[in-house]
Amino acid sequence: MLQQPELLAPAGSLETLKYAVLYGADAVYCALPEFGMRAAPVNLTVGELREGCIFAHARGKRVYLTLNTLPTNEELKKLPQYIQDAAEAGVDAFIIADLGVLSLAKKYAPGVERHFSTQAGITNYAAAAAAYELGAKRVVLARELPLTEIAQIRDHCPADLELEAFVHGAMCMSVSGRCLLSSYMTGRSGNRGECAQPCRWKYALVEERRPGQYMEIGESENGSYILNANDLCTAPFLDLICKAGVDSLKIEGRAKTFYYVASVTSAYRRALDTYLRDPFAEDFVLPDDVIEELNRTSHRHYSPGFYFGKEQALQTPSHTYVREWDFLGTVDEWADGVAHCTQRGKFSLGDSLEVLQPDGHVVTLQPKWIENEAGERVDSTPHPMMRYTIPCETPLMPCSLLRMRKAEEA
What sequence ranges are listed for the domain Peptidase family U32 C-terminal (predicted)? Predict the structure, then answer.
């Protein structure tokens, strides 16, 4: 086991990697364009991976590379060079689901740790021990495990086998992501990083002898999403996950924005630090601002997942997104009472803003003026990526994030 649990954050881009590190992650996981279970164009190049490793290592953080697709025979030919390039870039571990990939990683990058992916479906201590015997330093546990079974795995496995578990983010409706819906309905394989997420689609019910007569299932005003899972949120009981023997606390979301990753990472950093200050306390008191921060990102309604058994996991009151805050931009520099910012969303004079800083502190302000890059006073920030300045008496850290609550709908 690690001396203290690691906070592991997703990084779908180099920019997100840097924000995850700045906002409190102990380690990040990312992918190159192939073999990483995310076929969307949000991955890193080899050059960006190298830069990300340098950035993380300079701050005492680690970088893990996902190699957790199920490759074909033809694709295996690319892997030796792929693995060597990643090792030379400086990655600290590979996250692997396929035994063939595991063998190649041991051969071509013996000095890089190997972690068994959640796609491998580790649900018991025998499977975890087998992964250890095959050369895994860590196993990523299946999301379907309750805390009691995680504790049993910890008790029955070698002390130096690390356990990783998901603590926040989207959940797949299929066991350990082993879903064929996307392949069947769209030809895009979820096991190869191409999932079209048909479980998120809106469905209607029709009886075969009454074609065209669609029946309401009745869930919300937006329709019925009968396969859709809520988002996992474990912050209120993060202490129990740590006490069960989990070494790495994993946030899901490589396809998420850098704002989402920074915000969620910041919240879990505060939650974990609260636990670590008194790990033997009987009662874990979560700071109020942790849940407040988690509610400032776009998310589905939160659920404890399977950690307390199937009964709580199946309590799904709603599957609609909660989007109560808008991300407005970044603070690039602060000097002499002025914040220099880059636009990521529009706001206008008179709007009340919040600024989340990398150290977790939040500043509120209502700018009295906005000045564009030409030095002209303007009433709003309408242009994507425009540079502007606003007054702020409180010093702000570089890479702070601007946001505001959405206006009430009429």
Answer: 323-403
